[in-house]
Design goal:
By secondary structure, this protein is α/β, with parallel strands linked by helices. It has 21 helices and 11 strands. The two termini are 24 Å apart.
Length: 461
């Protein structure tokens, strides 16, 4: 299959090349529509706008950009698909997790092999793998998306709060059981005694509307080496070892709540809420699928609209008080291999200006354009190209160094890249529902896991 795809590429690349060479001569009145998720930081959006201006000047193609809040992108895109009025290029942080595999399966996405094949050597292999999806109409896998950036799991800790509780970073155990016991049994009573406030040691995302909840739970599953699908996407949940691992992972995840070590509201948290709790110092640590928590304080330190006192507070928090760390060792003593969520953009088969849209993607993915966009996110996203990963940006401070070390240590893909039906399970957030069955409805952990397995089989079997 792969050789057939590659064999078809030569003519496609030649055709695109001919078009690109001639484009400025007749594309003056061409306009492409681009829908893009709104960035977290102004520098991120400014880098995208700068690339668009350069693209317009070079090609004569006008880019009509619309940016939307992340939570609005999927509903707007689904409505556009139903109406037949899709944008020419689309990108959202949520596409890959919630919809892209399904759209590829249904034949709604354009094959981008002619864009990606000539430049694939510039990209890290795991990011290419995440972009190759199965199309049930053509009965083949191909690049039904382009990799743009990626994220993984990190732990954020208030070092000053840890010290106030009577501990230092070197006191944090590295073994699995000792690690969680340390936060619940030592840090929490320590910080409460020192402050007289009802501070919680851990921020454990458990909300059904939180992607943090399912991403964090995957890390707990990985600690127990739970493998839900094989490389072909076939379910493995009937294996008793998988069930046993799920029970242990769910028990450990929910025990933090049952022991009173995470805020009661964490069962209803949405994605920003563990960040907010951390910033407000109502929790000492949390796990988060980017370093957006630390990056917020860096942005404060650079924000000229803030007072000098606020900028100084941001600088102190980023450089001194916040620790970016990894999870402890797995229960068997091995190092957890983290999941990488590779964020991908797309072109729909129903797009009206596909040739010009491919030109735009090719331009965006050039190193001098994609790097400022990724680095404009202040460390929140990690690059997908080899050259950008070697950028001095990732050695500039302790937080970025921690991210670099975690990614270059090797990552694993999420199950939805192998079985697109897991996007449905992620949308439902069956993982957080299982947590809430245990902590809110007092269902035994093994029963909640059996319900979880039954739902996985019903949807993805």
């Amino acid at each position: 299959m792969k050789s057939k795809v590659i064999g078809a590429v030569t003519l496609a690349v030649a055709a695109v090349g001919l078009f690109a060479a001639a484009a400025p001569a007749f594309a003056q009145q061409k306009t492409i529509t681009v829908w893009w998720g709104k960035g977290f930081y102004r520098s991120e959006d400014d880098a995208l706008l700068d690339t668009i201006k350069k693209f317009e000047a070079k090609t004569g193609i006008k880019v009509e950009l619309s940016q939307y809040a992340i939570q609005d992108m999927i509903p707007k895109t689904v409505a556009a698909l139903d109406a037949g009025t899709v944008p020419d290029v689309a990108y959202s942080d949520t596409y890959d997790v919630q919809a892209q595999g399904k759209w590829a399966y249904e034949g709604k996405l354009e094959d981008l092999t002619d864009v990606m094949e000539p430049i694939k050597d510039r990209f890290v292999q795991n990011t290419l793998d995440a972009s190759i999806l199965y199309n049930d109409v053509t009965k083949k896998k191909a690049y039904y998306g382009f990799p743009l950036k990626q994220q993984s799991m990190h732990v954020q800790i208030w070092n000053d709060m840890l010290e106030k509780a009577g501990f230092k970073q070197s006191d944090i155990p590295t073994d699995w059981e000792g690690y969680w016991t340390f936060w619940c049994d030592k840090v929490q009573p320590g910080i409460r005694k020192a402050t007289g406030q009802r501070i919680y040691a851990v921020g454990q995302p458990m909300g059904v509307e939180s992607t943090d909840a399912f991403q964090s739970f995957y890390t707990f599953m990985d600690a127990y080496h739970v493998k839900l699908v094989d490389d072909d996407g076939k379910l493995l949940v009937d294996d008793p070892k998988v069930r046993d691992g799920l029970i242990k992972a769910l028990k450990d995840y929910t025990d933090t709540y049952i022991k009173g070590c995470t805020p009661p509201s964490s069962t209803t948290w949405k994605d920003p809420d563990n960040n907010v709790a951390f910033h407000n110092k109502t929790i000492v640590m949390t796990h988060n699928f980017t370093i957006s928590i630390a990056a917020k304080w860096y942005e404060d330190s650079q924000n000229q609209a803030l007072t000098q006192e606020q900028r100084d507070a941001g600088k102190k928090a980023y450089e001194q008080d916040i620790i970016t760390a990894s999870f402890p060792k797995a229960p068997d003593g091995s190092t957890i291999r983290y999941r990488s969520d590779v964020k991908t953009g797309l072109i729909f088969t129903a797009a009206k200006n596909k040739a010009e849209a491919k030109q735009f993607i090719s331009f965006l993915l050039q190193e001098e354009n994609v790097r400022p966009y990724i680095e404009g996110a202040l460390g929140r996203w990690f690059p997908v190209t080899k050259e950008s990963q070697a950028s001095p940006f990732w050695q500039a401070d302790k937080h970025r160094k921690a991210v670099h070390a975690q990614f270059t240590g090797g990552t694993a893909p999420f199950d939805f890249t192998k079985n697109w039906k897991f996007t449905i399970l992620n949308n439902e957030n069956v993982w957080a529902k299982a947590m809430n069955r245990v902590v809110s409805e007092k269902v035994p952990v093994d029963k909640a896991v059996d319900e979880l397995i039954a739902r996985i089989k019903q949807v993805a079997g």
